[in-house]
């Protein structure tokens, strides 16, 4: 199975796959607007803005599985992200990232890049998965990993792919 074939729903309810991102470096993040890590939205947006012309995208997947820290509707989430954090990177419909109803994308990501002690479980909001231009999940970052500290890894993937 390829990451590009996995079906996702945009924050506006449109069905699609990740195929439009084929050939790009992606940072896929489970987000929550009411989480203590929500200020990371600004850092994620900066990464997106600084590197989108090089073939990079941040993709946000809202989740309310951790202390119900996400708003009720996708419209409210989109509005809050834009107004409070200036988010313009792609957001998707609210999903589950753990359990029997975990979205297939996060089942794939957690299988490809395990957490501490080999755990597949996502521990909290703002877990980040870095995916290279070929769709390989190359690294999983914890919720406490600041987006700015991930930038050098992103730059390496972007420059390696452009030299190849």
Structural description of this entry:
This protein has 164 residues and is α+β, with helices and mostly antiparallel strands. It has one domain (3-163): Glutaredoxin, CATH 3.40.30. The chain contains four helices and six strands. The protein has a four-stranded mixed beta sheet with strand order 4-3-5-6, with helices on both faces. It has a two-stranded antiparallel ribbon with strand order 1-2. α1 packs parallel to α4. The longest helix has 17 residues, at 147-163. The chain is globular, with a radius of gyration of 15 Å. The relative contact order is 0.20.
- CATH superfamily membership: Glutaredoxin
CATH topology value: Glutaredoxin
Overall CATH architecture? 3-Layer(aba) Sandwich
Q: What's the arrangement of strands in the largest beta sheet?
A: 4-3-5-6
Radius of gyration over all CA atoms, rounded: 15 Å
| CATH level 1 class label | Alpha Beta
Summarize the structure.
The chain is of the alpha+beta class and about 160 residues long. It has a single domain (about 5-164), classed as Glutaredoxin (3-Layer(aba) Sandwich), CATH 3.40.30. The protein has helices at about 40-50, 75-85, 105-110, 145-164, and strands at about 5-10, 15, 25-30, 55-60, 130, 135-140.
């Amino acid at each position: 199975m390829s990451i590009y074939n996995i079906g996702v729903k945009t924050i506006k309810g449109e069905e699609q796959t990740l195929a439009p991102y084929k050939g790009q470096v992606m940072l896929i993040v489970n987000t929550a607007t009411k989480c203590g890590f929500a200020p990371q939205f600004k850092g994620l947006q900066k990464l997106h803005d600084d590197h989108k012309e090089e073939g990079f995208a941040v993709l946000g997947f809202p989740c309310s599985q951790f202390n119900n820290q996400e708003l009720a509707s996708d419209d409210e989430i989109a509005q809050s992200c834009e107004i409070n954090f200036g988010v313009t990177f792609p957001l998707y419909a609210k999903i589950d990232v753990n359990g029997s109803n975990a979205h297939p994308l996060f089942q794939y990501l957690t299988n490809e890049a395990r957490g501490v002690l080999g755990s597949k479980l996502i521990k909290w909001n703002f877990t980040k998965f870095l995916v290279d231009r070929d769709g390989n999940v190359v690294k999983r970052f914890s919720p406490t990993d600041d987006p700015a500290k991930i930038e050098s890894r992103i730059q390496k993937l972007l420059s390696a792919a452009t030299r190849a």
